[in-house]
Design a protein that fits this description.
The structure is a single chain. The strands form 4 sheets. Strands 5-2-1-6-7-8 form a 6-stranded parallel beta sheet, sandwiched between helices. A 3-stranded antiparallel beta sheet has the order 9-10-11, covered by helices on one side. The two termini are 30 Å apart. With 397 residues, the chain is an alpha/beta fold. The radius of gyration is 25 Å and the shape is elongated. A hairpin with a 3-residue loop joins strand 12 and strand 13. The chain has 17 helices and 13 strands. 40% of the residues lie in helices and 16% in strands.
């Protein structure tokens, strides 16, 4: 089934997470993503756990819908081959350290000479310019220097990374937005774009109002656990059989909550009657609310609060998320594919829902070099003899 990006060809030089997650979204939306991999090992994540048989589920999950071609980019003819593919592509995405693509002769300026309409996107730790340009950068560094670790965790705990690689994911999302915007602009102007996204920038942007706390008030935010700095109660609370998240966004909602819990007296108590007061007395609010939640199961709390349209939800473990009838089934966030060398397996679905035709998983993740011959014939029109010669010269494998 064709998606909204059908007809868009993406030449994907990325590996590990940030870049592949970005190109996964483009592929899910219908783009033809050609994943260029190095001979022998391919993407590093082909060896990352968890494994489905001998294949990496890590790799499979974020490289579905792509085709794999193996090119030795350090070989002069490999560079020529990549440039020929670039001529026939709409988008290039890479996430090497700045300067690497220049050394390979595949920089934006190199590609722009053969394809002025190219949209060339780079994801890196610190960006393509600035004093830290040449520093290596992983997700952990992005979280540390982007500010999010300083506000994640509990008051007396060390700075804490988020449970997932959020710097990589944020950079992937911002890069995808940049690419889609550039495609739209090219439709009007005919010109390509250079896109530069950094992990640190992405994390800092996502810290939103916490950055403004310092810029406007000179206040340095600290770690405060699961509660929110600006409204309360907006926190996690212990139940008889687990944990539940409850978010009270305004005073009208607070009144409904007090009614639902039979604690209308809190509306009259000056310590609880306004959001400002509740923020100041958050520890006491938490104690009162938790005295109520601890005597009930998560389901009992949900049944009561949802009747009053109070935003709340259980704190799910991963098995609970993956088996939830709404999330996993109705929203198709767990889908089954038929993966080569594995057979039937489940992966994460695409969160972008669109009608009449939107994102879909049309093909499994590729085996290393699975589509090398197919791509060279289809995109570049090479003959079997020419492909054989390239393979004998170790340009492709």
């Amino acid at each position: 089934m064709e998606g909204p990006l059908s007809g868009v060809r993406v030449l994907d030089f990325t590996r590990v997470l940030a870049g592949p997650f970005c190109t996964m979204l483009l592929a899910d939306l219908g783009a033809d993503v050609i994943k260029v991999e190095r001979p022998g090992r391919g993407d590093d994540t082909r060896t990352f756990p968890p494994f489905a048989g001998k294949e990496s589920a890590y790799f499979i999950n974020i490289n579905r819908n792509k085709r794999s071609i193996v090119i030795n980019l350090k070989h002069p003819k490999g560079r020529e081959l990549a440039l020929e593919l670039a001529k026939k592509s709409d988008v290039i995405v890479e996430n090497f350290r700045p300067g690497t693509m220049e050394k390979l002769g595949l920089s934006y300026e190199d590609v722009k000479k053969v394809n002025p309409r190219i949209i060339y996107a780079s994801i890196s730790g610190f960006g393509q310019y600035g004093p830290y340009r040449d520093r290596p950068g992983y997700d952990l560094i992005g979280q540390a220097m982007g500010g999010i670790m300083s506000i994640t965790g509990w008051p007396f705990s060390p700075p804490t990374r988020t449970g997932t690689a959020i710097a990589d994911i944020l950079a992937a999302l911002f890069c995808c937005v940049g690419i889609l915007s550039a495609l739209r602009a090219r439709d009007k102007t005919g010109e390509g774009r250079r896109i530069d996204v950094s992990l640190v920038d992405s994390v800092m942007s996502a810290c939103e109002a916490y950055v403004e706390m310092y810029l406007v008030e000179g206040k340095v935010p600290t770690r405060i656990g699961n509660r929110y700095e600006f409204i309360y109660p907006y926190d996690t609370f212990e139940a008889k059989d687990g944990w539940i998240a409850i978010g009270i966004g305004n005073e009208e909602m607070w009144a409904r909550f007090c009614k639902a819990t039979n604690m209308m007296w809190m509306l009259e108590d000056p310590k609880f009657s306004t959001n400002e007061a509740r923020l100041e007395n958050h520890a006491e609010v938490k104690r009162v609310v938790e005295d109520w939640t601890r005597n009930k199961t998560v389901k009992e709390i949900l049944d009561i609060l949802l009747k009053y349209e109070i935003p709340c939800g259980p704190v799910y473990s991963m098995d609970e998320v993956c088996n939830d009838p709404h999330i996993a089934k109705a929203r198709e966030m767990v889908v089954e594919i038929d993966q080569p060398n594995v057979g039937k397996m489940r992966i994460v679905g695409c969160p972008i829902k669109m009608t009449p035709t939107g994102a879909s998983i049309r093909r499994p993740a590729p085996l290393l070099g699975q589509h090398t011959d197919e791509i060279l014939k289809e995109v570049l029109g090479l003959s079997n003899e020419e492909i054989k010669r390239l393979r004998e010269e170790n340009v492709i494998s």
